[in-house]
Every structure is written in structure tokens, then in C-alpha cells.
Amino acid sequence: MEAIFHDWIGLVVRWAHIVAAIGWIGSSFYFMWLDYSLRNDGTLPRGVKGESWSVHGGGFYQVRKFQVAPDRMPDVLHWFKWEAYSTWLTGLAMLAVVYWWGAEGMLIDREVLDVSPAQAVVMSASSIGLGWLLYDRLCKSPLKANPGAMFAALYAGILLLCWAYGQVFSARAAWLHTGAVIATIMSGNVFFCIIPNQRKTVAAMTAGEDPDPRLGGEAKLRSLHNNYLTLPVIALMISNHYPVAFGHPQSWLLVAFILAIGAVVRMWFNWHDQGVSG
């Protein structure tokens, strides 16, 4: 009976996670496209960075982006945050149901490391939190002035993390946890940086002050990281269905290729949206 109950809970949580992820990824891809599609023909009002025209559902849309913020706050301002929050929360729930509840069969490989289920769960949860803290420190380090070097450090850190997980957990769990850390980084960027910086901008405007343009720059950097990590994290999250991938003797090298391929694909779409290709 417990096994049947476990499967039903797993199905519901997985369904919720997929639905939330579709919403987050969809809005993320849309706003990245929107940002890169902005054009300025020199006739836009002062303070407007660019505008984008589109047609959908039988109607035309005109969207403008300001360099920092408009002169006055609109009566209705739409925030995009719960797509990220709900994706992370449902992902955590699925991790708990599948890997923590089923630690003996899914998380632990006694040929890799002989630990108790409680110890494995503590290592799982703490490593995900530690992954976010290290990434956050990286973004606040002097490397923030060199985005390329920062991304190289992040790339190397993710590979090291994947290798380390392979020394602790089952092969399936190692890949899944690598994806969980990346997903936590992406969600943390929204919760701890992007939304707070936007709130500070709104608060400054409400108080009649000029918003700090650095807030937008910080949020933009984190958003860029999220953009390039989206496709790799999807691959890592669905990898638990493919032993040929996570079960490879050098599975961390496969993660290296996944990270690189995902970034290149997103880069191509970014160039395309800017009109550089096609």
C-alpha cells in the first residue's frame, strides 16, 4: 500500500513540477527574446532603450523597455516571480518524494559510499544549499567585472560538483543533484537578486528618487546566467530516465558537453533574436 501511495504522490508532484517549469521556461525564453528584439530607430522618447512590435492571437503588441525606469509608476505592474518559485518548490517536493523518501533505493549506492538514509538526506540538502552560497559569493567577487571569466568559473564549479556527487551518491542521483543545484541557483537568482533589485527600483521611484542603474546591471547578469543554464538543467532533470547517460563511467564529462551544447544553442537563439543570423 505504501508503494502505491508513494507512486501516486510522485506522479502528482512530478506533474506539478513540469507544469510550473513550462511556465517559468516559457516566460524566461519570451523575455530573453523580447530583450534581444528591442530596436531603437531614434524616434523613441528619452529614457527608452528600445521597442519591439509583435503580432499574436489576431492582435498587435507594442512593448517598450526603459533604460532604468519610467518617469512615473503605472497603476498596474506585472511581476514575474512565482513561475520560478513554484518550479523550485515543486522540484524540492519531488526530490523529497523520490530521493529522500526513497533514499535506500534511489539516493544511496553502498558500493560508492555506505551511509544511512538520514546521512544521505542531510548531505543532499546541505550540498544544494552550499551550492547556492558558493555561487552567490562568486557573483559578488571581483570576477563580476569579467562575465566571461565568471562563467568559466561557474562551468568548472558545476563539473567539480558533478564529479563530487558521483563519489557520494548513486549515478542517477549524482546527475539529478547536479541539476538540482543549477535549478536552485536559477531560482535563487530570482528570489535573492532579480526581484529584490526590481523592488528597490520601484521603491526609489515611489519616493521620488532616481533608481540606481547598478541594480538593473546586477539583475541582468544573473538573468543571463539563468538563460544559458536553462537547457542544460532540463537535460539533467530528465536524465534519470536514461541510464546510458548518468551511468557512463565518465558521466561528468557528459555533463561538460551538455553545459556547452546548451549554452551554444541558447547563444544561437540570442543571436537570431538580435537579427545576427537568419
Tell me about this structure.
With 278 residues, the chain is mainly alpha-helical. Helices cover 69% and strands 6% of the residues. It contains 9 helices and 2 strands; from the N terminus they run H-E-E-H-H-H-H-H-H-H-H. Strands 1-2 form a two-stranded antiparallel sheet. The longest helix is centred in the N-terminal third of the chain and has 36 residues.
Question: Short summary of the structure?
Answer:
By secondary structure, the chain is mainly α. 69% of the residues lie in helices and 6% in strands.
Strand content: 5-15%
Gap between N and C termini: 56 Å
The computed structural class is: mainly alpha
Major sheet: arrangement of strands: 1-2
What descriptors fit this protein?
278 residues, mainly alpha, 69% helix, 6% strand, elongated
Layout of helices and strands:
Layout: H1 2-37, E1 48-56, E2 59-66, H2 82-100, H3 103-107, H4 117-139, H5 147-166, H6 171-206, H7 213-238, H8 243-246, H9 251-274
Antiparallel strand pairs: 1-2
